[in-house]
Design a protein that fits this description.
two-stranded antiparallel sheet, Arc Repressor Mutant, subunit A, about 280 residues, rod-shaped
Length: about 280
């Protein structure tokens, strides 16, 4: 603020009792030229006009996102966001989205001290299609006819839940195996197929996490899919069907002592009564 000098001569301009009287002091530094087309705009709100003047006063590279502006002014994020949309609609501001080589999308803000003609709204950047999963270093190059992931023979909700929980906790063994929800949905049927074939969850977990490459994993879901497919155990052997026929009973033979018919696999055998009476000893 310029220092006031009480001894300075009074302004020669008479005061206007019915309107504004301007007393202007020339600025020599730290000032911004703002056009009346902005400050007297008929369609912009006072918040938008003030925000435009503030943005035009900032140095290049200053942050003008909603959160930064809301931390600077008391209007709050909702009113500031609405004011930015007003300035965009009237050509004082443009927000251009750009995709970096890394794939990350950033927004550049451009401020105009002269309003620009309305530009057609560019379509939002489309996400790049997900690349075809590639096997990790331990796998040989995948031939064109890659076998599909295993699937269980029958649906079992509990088994599917166990498979999903197993995949969701693989990162406890190796942080590189933190899978997305989409990857878990894709791989869960293959894990369920292993469980259906008699593999215990601990054995499946060991197969998926043991002897991982030491270098960074480019595509963890592809590595897991490769192991689940190539190392699939054989189906559990089926138990023979139970037979309803009872075991064969020994044939009848006559007791050597009392001639009573008894069941025994061998002829010339004594019955229990004759054995207790000692006939077998006397006969010997």
């Amino acid at each position: 603020m310029d220092t006031q000098h009480p001894s300075a001569p009074a302004c020669a301009q008479p005061l206007n009792p019915r309107g504004i009287t301007h007393i202007n002091t020339p600025h020599t530094n730290r000032f911004t030229v703002v056009g009346n087309h902005l400050t007297q705009h008929r369609s912009l709100s006072l918040t938008a006009i003030g925000l435009a003047a503030h943005i035009q006063s900032l140095p290049p590279g200053a942050r003008v996102d909603i959160k930064t502006l809301a931390a600077r002014f008391p209007e709050g994020e909702t009113r500031i966001a609405a004011a930015l949309r007003e300035l965009e609609a009237h050509g004082y501001l443009a927000r251009v989205r750009e995709r970096l080589p890394s794939g990350r999308i950033v927004t550049h803000t451009v401020s105009y001290n002269q309003p620009q003609p309305a530009q057609p709204t560019p379509p939002p950047p489309q996400p790049e299609p997900e690349p075809e999963p590639e096997p990790e270093a331990e796998a040989a190059p995948t031939p064109p006819g890659r076998p599909p992931l295993p699937e269980p023979e029958s649906a079992d909700l509990d088994r599917h839940r166990t498979a999903s929980a197993l995949l969701a906790t693989l990162h406890h063994q190796d942080p590189r195996l933190l899978l997305s929800e989409r990857a878990i949905r894709r791989l869960a049927p293959a894990v369920a197929a292993w469980l259906e074939r008699g593999a215990r969850p601990e054995a499946v977990r060991h197969t998926l996490t043991a002897n991982l490459p030491s270098e960074p994993l480019r595509n963890p879901p592809a590595l897991l899919a490769h192991r689940l497919t190539d190392l699939l155990p054989p189906p559990a052997p089926t138990a023979p069907p139970p037979t309803d026929r009872p075991a064969a009973r020994p044939p009848f033979h006559n007791c050597e002592g009392c001639e009573r018919a008894i069941r025994t696999p061998h002829p010339g055998t004594y019955c229990r009564d004759c054995r207790n009476a000692g006939l077998t000893t006397s006969a010997a």
